[in-house]
């Protein structure tokens, strides 16, 4: 983390429309044997230098040049750097100790860059302390509880510093390092708020665009998980049956335990799974279990032939023959098949993606045999 630059959010610049900016970065780097500094981007293992300049004997420098986009950059000093937020017309001065620019540096003309660097130091210190404690627990398992207890106060201090940083830098691109400090699995609301604040304040940055795309993907995944979470009511739908004329609704099967089975005649894994579904249906159909097969086929004849060949004897077969654009798979956000949703007699979701022995075990638990 000492050479931090959002490496998980970096982008492929050639794929992003460029909006060139003019910037000036000047200042003084003392106590160094280096003869030059550069404005660069850091990719975790290497730098990309955009322009560089010599340091005079006193360590003074002036960097002026064109960058491809407003974005997160660094002032590179040898193998270390200072993180910068650069916009069009930026005029930033940096004064630092070249022997340890990370620890001893003053940034003038960009409060957002200064605030970001200050929090990066806080975050780095916590990560180092946490990782050291975890390593010690691995070496000395008998001391795990002692070490864990000793870290509690430090953890709460760090959380307080994180919340203070977020509160003091609202709607600022300086918030970017907080993204990696927030547990988005357990606190998605804070993660979402940070993303929207950064995107709103620095949306022209390719790094921010990439981060925002990642957020949209994560949001879809979360919505899907919530949509199909156990206990949620399965979204109802109406679709055409095999004859292409008759329609049926999922809710028509209310009162039965239903396996919604997304499949297609062209799907090898689906066809391989079909004998298991048939076996399960035959065992539990008289106890109140049925299957509603939703096909992603394009061709009615192929769909019908596969039903007959695989012996899918239940009557509930529906499809609009729209392939991946089919309506029902879109409702259930199906991304791959076979995919199943098991719902109870009240139409509420029990579990998703049950197959083979897992489906058999769940139905055995429900019906008692």
Short synopsis of the structure:
It contains 9 helices and 15 strands. It is an alpha+beta fold. The strands form 4 sheets. Strands 13-12-11-14-15 form a 5-stranded mixed sheet, with helices on one face. The protein has a 4-stranded mixed sheet with strand order 4-1-7-8.
What is the strand and helix layout of this fold?
Blueprint: E1 21-30, E2 36-42, E3 47-54, E4 60-67, E5 71-77, E6 80-86, E7 91-97, E8 105-108, H1 111-139, H2 144-168, H3 176-181, H4 188-202, H5 206-227, E9 238-240, E10 247-249, E11 257-263, H6 268-284, E12 289-295, H7 300-310, E13 317-318, H8 327-331, E14 339-343, E15 349-352, H9 356-367
Parallel strand pairs: 1-7, 11-12, 12-13
Antiparallel strand pairs: 1-4, 2-3, 2-5, 5-6, 7-8, 9-10, 11-14, 14-15
Helix pairs in contact: 1-2, 4-5, 6-9
Jot down its keywords.
four-stranded mixed β-sheet, 15 strands, alpha+beta, Glutaredoxin, Immunoglobulin-like
Description of the molecule:
- The chain has 369 residues and is of the alpha+beta class.
- It folds into three domains: 7-109, Immunoglobulin-like, CATH 2.60.40; 118-227, no CATH class; 238-367, Glutaredoxin (3-Layer(aba) Sandwich), CATH 3.40.30.
- It is 38% helix and 24% strand.
- It is built from nine helices and 15 strands.
- It has helices at residues 111-139, 144-168, 176-181, 188-202, 206-227, 268-284, 300-310, 327-331, 356-367, and strands at residues 21-30, 36-42, 47-54, 60-67, 71-77, 80-86, 91-97, 105-108, 238-240, 247-249, 257-263, 289-295, 317-318, 339-343, 349-352.
- Strands 13-12-11-14-15 form a five-stranded mixed sheet, covered by helices on one side. A four-stranded mixed sheet has the order 4-1-7-8.
- A hairpin with a 2-residue loop joins strand 5 and strand 6.
- Helix 1 packs antiparallel against helix 2, helix 4 (188-202) runs antiparallel to helix 5 and helix 6 (268-284) runs parallel beside helix 9 (356-367).
- It is elongated, with a radius of gyration of 29 Å.
- The chain starts with 20 loop residues before the first strand and ends with a helix.
- Residues 1-14 have low confidence and may be disordered.
């Amino acid at each position: 983390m000492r050479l931090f630059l959002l490496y998980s959010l970096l982008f492929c610049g050639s794929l992003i429309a460029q909006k060139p900016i003019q910037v000036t970065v000047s200042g003084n780097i003392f106590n160094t044997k280096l003869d030059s500094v550069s404005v660069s981007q850091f990719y975790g293992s290497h730098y990309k230098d955009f322009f560089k300049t010599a340091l005079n004997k006193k360590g003074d420098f002036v960097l002026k040049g064109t960058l491809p986009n407003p974005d997160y950059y660094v002032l590179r000093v040898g193998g270390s750097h200072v993180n910068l937020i650069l916009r069009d017309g930026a005029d930033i001065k940096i004064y630092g100790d070249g022997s340890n620019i990370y620890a001893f540096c003053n940034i003038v003309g960009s409060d957002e860059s200064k605030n970001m660097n200050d929090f990066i130091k806080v975050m780095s210190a916590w990560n180092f302390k946490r990782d050291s404690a975890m390593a010690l627990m691995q070496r000395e398992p008998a001391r795990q509880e002692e070490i864990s207890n000793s870290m509690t106060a430090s953890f709460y201090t760090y959380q307080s510093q994180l919340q203070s940083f977020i509160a003091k830098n609202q709607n600022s691109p300086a918030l970017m390092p907080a993204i990696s400090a927030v547990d988005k699995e357990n606190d998605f609301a804070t993660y979402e708020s940070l993303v929207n604040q950064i995107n709103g304040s620095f949306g022209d940055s390719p790094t921010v665009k990439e981060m925002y795309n990642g957020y949209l993907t994560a949001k879809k995944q979360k919505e899907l998980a919530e949509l199909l979470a156990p206990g949620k009511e399965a979204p109802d739908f109406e679709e055409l049956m095999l004859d292409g004329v008759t329609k049926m609704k999922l809710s028509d099967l209310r009162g039965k335990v239903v396996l919604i089975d997304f499949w297609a005649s062209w799907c090898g894994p689906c066809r391989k799974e079909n004998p298991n579904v048939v076996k399960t249906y035959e065992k539990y159909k008289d106890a109140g279990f049925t299957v509603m097969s939703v096909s992603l086929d394009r061709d009615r004849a192929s769909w019908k032939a596969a039903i007959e060949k695989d012996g899918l004897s239940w009557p509930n077969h529906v499809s609009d023959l729209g392939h991946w654009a089919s309506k029902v798979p879109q409702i259930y956000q199906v991304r791959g098949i076979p995919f199943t949703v098991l719902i109870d007699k009240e139409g509420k979701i029990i579990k998703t993606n049950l197959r083979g022995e897992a489906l058999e075990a769940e139905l055995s638990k429900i019906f008692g045999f």
